[in-house]
Each structure stands twice: as structure tokens, then as C-alpha cells.
Amino acid sequence: MKAPLLKRVTEDEKGATAIEFALVAPALLSLIVAVINVSLLGLTSASLHYAVEEGARCAAVRLVCPEPRSRYFAPGPAPVFTLTSTVCGSLLSATVTFNLNAVLIQKSIQLSAKACYP
To answer: How many other C-beta atoms are found inside a 10 Å radius of the C-beta of residue 44?
Structure first.
């Protein structure tokens, strides 16, 4: 009587899919979170470059310009903008620290951008 019970338990495949999902789900969710955070890093970098380019152009063309921060639309801390007059014209530079939290990787990445408009 013991042999048929053991045979039934070992040959039963009910719940195999749930166990496989439980093994794969943490890796899949970690990968999705990492991709989202790296995408936010790209958005932050692109937004910083856009704000610097627009701010340098505005400073060279107009007398009164809006804050370059108004052109920065990425989430997270606000960047620090510095406007100087140089040989090339109005040089605007900016820096911001992005905190990358990709499950196993946690880093603070310093992003910077410069634009000069004659």
C-alpha cells in the first residue's frame, strides 16, 4: 500500500507551474526594476542636456530668461546651474546626482552638461 502512495506523489504534476513561477519571478521582477531605473537615468541625462542647451541659447539671445530649471523635467533632485560669459558666448553648465537603485546595484552617478551659445 505504501508503494502506490509514493508513486502517486512523485508522478503528480499539479502545482509544478506555480513552483516554476516562484523560482523565476524574483529574477524577472529584479530585471524589470533595473530596466526602469536605467531608463530613468537616460531620461535624467537627456533632460539635463536639454535644459542646459535651452538656457544657454536664451541667455545669449534675450535679456530676461526663465530659470533653466523650468526646462528640466526629470524626477529626483534639482540640478545646480552655473552661467558664465566666455569667449564662445554664454556658457551654461549644470550638475546633478542621480541615485541608481537597480536591486543589486546602488550607486550615485554624477551627471553634468555644458552648452555654449554665441
So the answer is: 23
Residue 2 has pLDDT above 70, yes or no: no
DSSP codes, 27-62: HHHHHHHHHHHHHHHHHHHHHHHHHHHHHHHHHHH-
Q: How many domains does the chain have?
A: 1
> DSSP character for 68?
G
Q: What is the domain range of residue 22?
A: 16-117
Decide: 69 and 47 in contact? Cβ < 8 Å.
no
Rounded Cα distance, 67 and 20, in Å: 53
Task: Tell me how far apart the alpha carbons of residues 11 and 51 are, in angstroms, rounded to a whole number.
Answer: 63
Residue 1, domain member (yes or no)? no
Q: State the average pLDDT over residues 81-109.
A: 90
In a domain, 7, yes or no: no
Q: What percent of the chain has pLDDT over 90?
A: 55
Q: Is residue 4 part of a domain?
A: no
Q: How far is residue 11's CA from residue 17's CA, in Å, rounded to a whole number?
A: 15
Cell of 47: 533632460
Name the pTM for this structure: 0.80
